[in-house]
Amino acid sequence: MSNSKNNKNSGTHMTGKKALLEISRWIFLGIMVIFTLYPIIYTILGSLKTNAELTLGGSFFPEEWHFENYYQAFVGADFLQYAQNSILVGVSVTVLAVVTTSLAGFILARREFAGKKILMALYMSMMFVSLGSITLYPLYQVMHGLGLHKTPIALIIALTGGQATNVFLVMGFTKAIPKELDEAAIIDGCNIYQVYYKVILPLTKPILSVVALFSFRNAWNDYITGLVMTVTNPALKTLTVAVVQLKYSVNAAAEWHIMLAGASIAIIPILIVYMFANKQFIAGLTAGAVKG
Questions:
Q1: Which among 37, 135, 153, 262 counts the fewest CB atoms within 10 Å?
Q2: pLDDT at 28 over 80
Q3: Is 263 within 8 Å of 243 (Cβ atoms)?
Q4: How far is 44 from 264, CA to CA, in rounded Å?
Q5: What is the pLDDT of residues 221-275, one digit of tens each?
């Protein structure tokens, strides 16, 4: 009887512990959702207020819904022109990132060469040490020396960068692919380039989808690099730069409500991209986690 009572108490204790853990998990997830969604909700609601209401910090919801803010932002930011610039830069950066990271990941995972350990150490240091805006002036000087500072190529190259984190993602994914597939392809007459194109590239599509989405998002949302690289040719400004500059007007006060309206419009394209790439993104992360 005593053992049965102890087992029952132990079972009750374990059930209570599991319930507590489950509640804690949901509370944590709820807090994370609030922190994630609050800035977006605040931006959308703020874009529908007057500038005075926004700056004075009135109620959370607008007293009157001013949808004309969106029209002013659309016209003031010259949305279509700068959106075209952002799309050009975003797509170009994405393509370059996918090509360079897939090639680098393949070589680091499959080939041995002099200086490989040093190169990997440099890549590793780039993952944990962010130089940020310190590199912008040297980059601009290089692009100026090459005569590219008045072209979108400068911004595309600057935003593509070293892709250290993405290279390691692709390298880890490639290492999980059996080398026997490479050897079988070589026996069939493939050279190293054909092994990459016909064997490795199709099998790494899930992780490359993740790289593509991250690269496009970073290129679309970037502000400081776009501002510096287009300073000599304002016509090349990206949408993010144009949206931030909406707050500067002929009036004395910064027009934050117009800027928030422009930011709300600028969010739409990246949301559309994520909606279409959602399955590939989740599949890539899941496959990477399983293979890792």
A1: 37
A2: yes
A3: yes
A4: 6
A5: 888 888 888 888 888 889 888 888 877 765 556 778 888 888 888 888 888 877 7
H or E segment and range at residue 212: helix 205-221
User: 216, 214, 240, 213: which is closest to 226 by C-alpha?
Assistant: 240
pLDDT at 93 over 90: yes
User: Can you tell me the distance from the alpha carbon of 291 to that of 248, in angstroms, rounded to the nearest whole number?
Assistant: 50
pLDDT of residue 136: 82
For residue 119, give both structure tokens.
Answer: 């190169």
DSSP letter at 196 equals I
In the 8-state DSSP scheme, what is residue 197?
Answer: I
- CB neighbours of 277 closer than 8 A, spacing ≥ 6? 209, 212, 213
Q: Is the pLDDT of residue 9 over 60?
A: no
Q: Mean pLDDT lowest for which of 99-108, 112-121, 281-290?
A: 281-290
In angstroms, what CA-CA distances link 205 with 25, 173, 259?
33, 10, 37
Segment (H or E) for 109: helix 79-110
What's residue 89's pLDDT?
A: 93
